[in-house]
Structures are given as structure tokens and as C-alpha cells.
Write a structure and sequence with these properties.
- The radius of gyration is 31 Å and the shape is extended.
- By secondary structure, the protein is α+β, with helices and mostly antiparallel strands.
- Helices cover 60% and strands 9% of the residues.
- It has helices at 2-20, 23-89, 94-107, 143-163, 194-204, 258-268, 270-274, 276-282, 294-313, 317-333, 337-345, 354-365, 370-393, 399-421, 436-454, 467-482; strands spanning 112-116, 122-126, 132-133, 140-141, 181-183, 211-215, 218-222, 224-230, 233-239, 245-248.
């Protein structure tokens, strides 16, 4: 067709301007135009058919991958189990076992495959962060889908907190601004949730930056400290730089080790005694107990830690803190200290290394696969080493400076890779560090536990096609109500 149009055009040009206006010339030109237009219509129709076929194939492949995801992991475990059993019957060195697991991971296309524990250990395999499947329903959220919703909900909470009117503390004068101490008991009743109060304190008294020094020939960091009073208690916040912030002065919960807090709750059941007062603490309302009560101090510490300090590290902690409080309040109604302890221990940011892993998790939710993240870190480190080598060869830096810079690049690469892929437990570090993928799985499990317990009859009289929207609306309403936003 293209050649025919070209030849018709050449023929019209050879006829000349006069003959082109004759019936013969017009017929020749109109025929060429019809031929060209017909060609374009057929070309566009073919392209549309080809694109539709490609889209159908892509959708079919995606649905097939979703169906086969769990089956692939199950088949891989079934095939690896006898091979590993034969290998472990013999005495194998850790290096040999690690190499075998690495080869199997590549062969079965798993994201991770590793041995966990010391002495008696388990071998665990992962294909990807799991989907959220609510038992007793046909509802299924892909991991990215539900975690993206949680990030949007956390951002909505932050936006509404910024819009919320922040009244000045009652009776505060210019002379008070010269004081180093800030009293949260002076806040007006409508000042907002406890996270609002903590944020307002930080805005009014920016945390001093940490300082670097030397002690016994070693570099040490002295945190910047800021203090305020609440219920007659002097509370000290320590700023170690970045998003790290620690609390002192609120009773027995002095450690941010969630496992220790959960163990203490199982033994003493203090938070179970709080009941609805824990929700009041979360919402910044007065409790029915004395403010200096030890149980109130523990509840205040836990709420400040999860809803404010952890949110500085990962904004989605704002959502999970509200769910945690609701789980503990419900456990209190049943006098179930174990359920309250589980709500603390399973809190997503409770995992060691969660701060770095949260960065990798958010990148994955945004669409960047974990393998791509690892490759990007390796490529960046290689490029920085090449720059150092070039600077050394050109005489811009000495050999000692180049060596120190290479060490710094290696440390930074190790830190970023640990945040992405985690760190296996060792005898020196029995807990290890959580990976971005494991952190995503922890969040899925936390949501699953909450939804299965609290959905109730929310889905009654709701068409199946609207079930997923009903679940998301329920989750949003519960979280926003916990933060006492208007209209909830």
C-alpha cells in the first residue's frame, strides 16, 4: 500500500499542475488519498488489536502468577525438604549449608531461604510478602495494595493533624518561653491526641542536636536532651540524631525492647488494668486514675512510643498504634494479659532493625522490587569506589585517605543491604535484624489479626463486589475515630 501511494504521488507530479486539475488528475489524487486513508485505518485497527491482545495476555499472566504464587512456594518446600533432610543427616559445616541454601534459593526462584536459630534451628523459605486473606471471607488483598492504603491513611492522619487548630497553652506568657521546661498539663483540653501533644512539644522546644566527643580514646555521641513535666513527673527526651528518640522518666517501661515490655505485661497485667483509660491516654484525655499512677505512666510511655516516636521512623506506625490500643482495650475487657502482650510484641516496628527496613519496605510498596534495591546499592558502591580509585590515581588524595573512604563506602553498603535483606541471627547477635520484606509481612499479619477480630458483621448486607471497599472503609473509620478527627 505504501508503494502504491508513493507511485500515485509520483504520477501526479509527472502530470504537472495543469493536468493534475483535470478529471484524470483528480481521480488519480482521490484514489491515492482513499488508498492512504484505508491503509491508516487498517494499520490503526491492527495496532489496536495487537495492544488488546498484549493487555489480555498480561492480565492472564498476572492472574496465573497470583494463583500459582502460593503453589510455587509449597512445591518448592516439598521438593527441598527431602534434599535438606539427606544433607542434614550428615555433619555439615555452616558454610556448606549456607552454600546449599543459596543454590536452592536461586534454583527455586525464592526471595530468601535461610536457617534461623542457634543449636536447634529452622530453615525458612519466602517467595514474597504474603497477601492479606481474611479467614471466613473471600476477601484477598495483595500485599502492595493493602500496604499502599495504610501509607495513604497515615499521610491523611498527618495532614489532618496539621490542619487541626493548635490553641496556645492556657496561661502561657512570654516569660514562660524562656524556660527550659515545658508542661503538657497546661494544654487546653482540645489540644488533640497524645501524638499531637508530643509533636507540639517538639515544635515549641526543638530537640537539641547531639554532640560528638571522645571518651577513653573512642568517639562517643552525647544526645541532645529536652524535658517537660506531665502530672508532676519530669520527663526527659533524648535525641541521638536522625529519627532516633528515647524517653526517660515514665516508670518501669524504660526500655524500647518490645519483647521485654510484652513479657512484663504477661507477668503483671498492668495495661489490662487500664482498660478504657488506655484509649483516653491515646486521645489525650484525662484518665480516671491519678496522673502519677504507675500503670498510667506505663500506658503513657507505650502510647508515646508507638504513636509518636515510632511514627518519626515510619509514618505508618500512626495507623498500627491505633490498632494496638484497640487490641489492648479489648483484651482488658476479657482480662487477657496474653492478648495484650501479643498486641505489643507483634507491633510491626517492634522488630530489631525496623527503622532501616521501613525504608526498603516503602520503596517496595512504591514498586521497586527488593532485588532491584540490592542491585542499586551494589552499583552505587561500585561507582563510589571507582571515583575513589580515580582520585587516588590522579594524586588528589593519598593512599591512606583512599583506604578510609573505601572503608566508609563498604560500611554504608553493608548498612543499606542489611536494611533491605536483613541480618541472620548469630551467637553474638541472636535476634538479627528484620528485612524490608519481613517488615511488610509483619504488617500484613498485624492487619489480619485485627480485621479478623473486629470486622464483626460489617460485611452483612454488602454485595460481594463491594467487600474490599467495605473493609477499607471500616479500617479507615476505626483509625480516624481513634485520633478523634471530626466527622468520625
Amino acid at each position: 500500500v505504501r508503494n502504491g501511494v508513493r507511485r500515485a504521488g509520483e504520477a501526479a507530479r509527472r502530470l504537472g499542475p495543469r493536468l493534475a486539475r483535470t478529471p484524470v488528475g483528480r481521480a488519480l489524487r482521490n484514489g491515492a488519498n482513499r488508498l492512504r486513508d484505508g491503509y491508516r485505518r487498517q494499520r490503526d485497527r491492527y495496532r489496536s488489536w495487537r495492544n488488546q491482545r498484549t493487555d489480555r495476555r498480561r492480565d492472564r499472566d498476572r492472574r496465573k502468577q497470583e494463583r500459582q504464587h502460593d503453589d510455587r512456594l509449597a512445591r518448592a518446600v516439598q521438593r527441598m525438604r527431602p534434599r535438606l533432610a539427606r544433607l542434614l543427616r550428615r555433619v555439615v559445616r555452616p558454610a556448606v549449608l549456607t552454600a546449599a541454601l543459596g543454590a536452592m534459593r536461586l534454583w527455586y526462584r525464592l526471595s530468601r531461604l535461610r536457617a534461623e536459630g542457634t543449636g536447634l534451628f529452622d530453615i525458612k523459605a519466602w517467595a514474597s510478602p504474603p497477601a492479606l486473606v481474611i479467614e471466613g471471607t473471600t476477601i484477598r488483598f495483595e500485599a502492595r495494595e493493602i500496604l499502599q492504603f495504610i501509607e495513604e491513611l497515615a499521610a491523611e492522619i498527618q495532614r489532618d493533624r496539621v490542619r487541626r487548630r493548635r490553641p496556645q497553652p492556657h496561661g502561657r506568657s512570654n516569660a514562660d518561653d524562656e524556660k527550659d521546661e515545658f508542661s503538657l498539663t497546661d494544654q487546653a483540653p482540645a489540644a488533640g491526641t497524645m501524638a499531637d501533644l508530643m509533636g507540639r512539644h517538639e515544635e515549641s522546644r526543638p530537640f537539641p542536636e547531639p554532640t560528638q566527643g571522645m571518651r577513653d580514646g573512642r568517639p562517643v555521641t552525647t544526645p541532645g536532651m529536652s524535658s517537660f513535666t506531665w502530672g508532676g513527673l519530669v520527663t526527659v527526651l533524648k535525641n541521638f540524631g536522625g529519627r532516633n528518640l528515647f524517653i526517660e522518666g515514665w516508670g518501669a517501661f524504660r526500655s524500647t525492647k518490645y519483647k521485654k515490655m510484652a513479657a512484663q505485661e504477661r507477668g503483671e497485667g498492668n495495661l489490662v488494668q487500664l482498660g478504657d483509660d488506655l484509649r483516653r491516654i491515646f486521645q489525650g484525655r484525662p484518665t480516671r486514675r491519678p496522673e502519677n499512677d504507675a500503670v498510667v505512666r506505663k500506658g503513657r510511655f507505650l502510647v508515646a512510643l508507638t504513636s509518636y516516636i515510632e511514627a518519626r521512623r515510619d509514618p505508618t506506625a500512626r495507623v498500627y498504634a491505633a490498632l494496638m490500643v484497640e487490641r489492648i482495650v479489648t483484651a482488658s475487657a476479657r482480662n487477657d494479659a496474653n492478648a495484650a502482650a501479643a498486641a505489643i510484641e507483634d507491633f510491626p516496628m517492634a522488630a530489631i532493625g525496623a527503622e532501616g527496613a521501613s525504608i526498603s519496605k516503602r520503596a517496595w510498596v512504591a514498586g521497586e522490587e527488593f532485588e532491584v534495591q540490592r542491585a542499586a546499592v551494589q552499583a552505587q558502591a561500585a561507582a563510589e569506589r571507582a571515583q575513589i580509585n580515580q582520585a587516588q590515581s590522579s594524586g588528589n588524595i593519598t593512599a591512606d585517605e583512599a583506604r578510609e573512604r573505601r572503608k566508609a563506602v563498604t560500611r554504608e553498603r553493608s548498612r543499606k543491604l542489611t536494611a533491605i535483606q536483613g541480618k541472620q541471627p548469630t551467637p553474638k547477635d541472636p535476634e538479627g535484624k528484620v528485612s524490608g520484606e519481613e517488615l511488610a509481612a509483619r504488617e500484613i499479619r498485624y492487619l489480619k489479626t485485627y480485621l479478623e477480630a473486629y470486622l464483626g458483621n460489617t460485611l452483612e448486607n454488602v454485595p460481594p463486589a463491594a467487600h474490599k471497599k467495605a473493609v477499607l472503609d471500616f479500617l479507615r473509620s476505626q483509625v480516624m475515630r481513634a485520633y478523634r478527627f471530626r466527622g468520625q
